[in-house]
Specification:
Length: about 270
């Protein structure tokens, strides 16, 4: 775990300024337009509902565009991430936008020793986060500890069925990677990140873990949370299967052929009793 954490942290520290400089994260638009929200949060809005006045925590917040969007919807936001490079970009963006967002440097499993227990009305985890965590049960423990009684978890994530597919096959769907959580990570080697940039990464090795949908639900139930919603979506915010997808007007990507074959993401909501 320690080696995986260090490798992933180095990668995200290096990626953060590249992501902030890329038009994909729309940093300039956030600064220019005080009403602008990220595409991710705009997608979430129908299920997210009114969060005005809530004390919110965004776990694994990266450079803070979704955190900022939640603050613009009226929540009093804190963002947490293990990457100092990401938080530097997040703090700079919040300052330029004039929003008092608190950012805390810690990994998810250390959050309970960094933030006060039972102090948040809303815990938000945006898409593309859980795959960086090796143990979904420990994640659920963090969620349960930090939520107030009656507080809500809002999670949108890439569907584990999608994450088990090999994207190198551009003419069919091929299951090559774990669906269920395994102790050993899936190791990736790449000098590219997922935004438009001419830069090549120096920190090329990253470690990821998949978590089956049942494992996520069971972990939350075991911590005393009550599942209040689970919706599977046929879209996702990135081109997860190159050559087989097209981008919608709302920024989401969907399979070109028979999109009903595969769930691409899901939204799960739960309440702490």
């Amino acid at each position: 775990m320690a080696d995986s954490l260090a490798l992933n942290k180095a990668s995200w520290d290096e990626r953060a300024p590249l992501h902030a400089a890329s038009g994909d994260y729309e940093v300039a638009t956030f600064v220019a337009d005080p009403a602008h929200l990220s595409e991710v949060v705009r997608f979430d809005l129908p299920l997210l509902g009114d969060i005005e006045g809530l004390r919110g925590l965004h776990l694994q917040c990266h450079i803070g565009t979704d955190t900022l969007s939640l603050a613009r919807l009226g929540a009093h936001m804190t963002g947490l991430d293990f990457s100092a490079g990401s938080l530097e970009q997040a703090r700079g963006l919040a300052e330029r936008c004039g929003l008092p967002i608190e950012y805390v440097e810690a990994d998810v499993y250390a959050a309970c020793s960094t933030l006060p227990a039972a102090s948040f009305d809303l815990l938000y985890t945006g898409i593309g986060a859980l795959c960086w965590l090796p143990d979904i049960q420990r994640w659920a423990g963090t969620v349960a500890t930090l939520l107030k009684p009656g507080g809500r978890l809002f999670l949108r994530e890439g569907h584990p069925m999608l994450l088990a597919l090999n994207e190198d096959h551009q003419d069919r769907l091929v299951v090559d990677y774990p669906y269920f959580e395994r102790p050993e990570p899936t190791v990736w080697i790449s000098d590219q990140t997922y935004v438009s940039t001419d830069a090549s990464l120096l920190n090329t090795e990253t470690h990821e873990w998949n978590h089956g949908l049942g494992e996520v639900v069971s972990a939350l139930l075991s911590q005393g949370l009550r599942i209040t919603g689970l919706v599977e979506h046929d879209s996702i915010p990135w081109e997860a299967l190159p050559g087989q997808m097209s981008r919608r007007d709302n920024g989401e990507w969907q399979l070109d052929s028979q999109p009903w074959r595969l769930p691409l993401s899901y939204t799960l909501q739960a309440v702490k009793e």
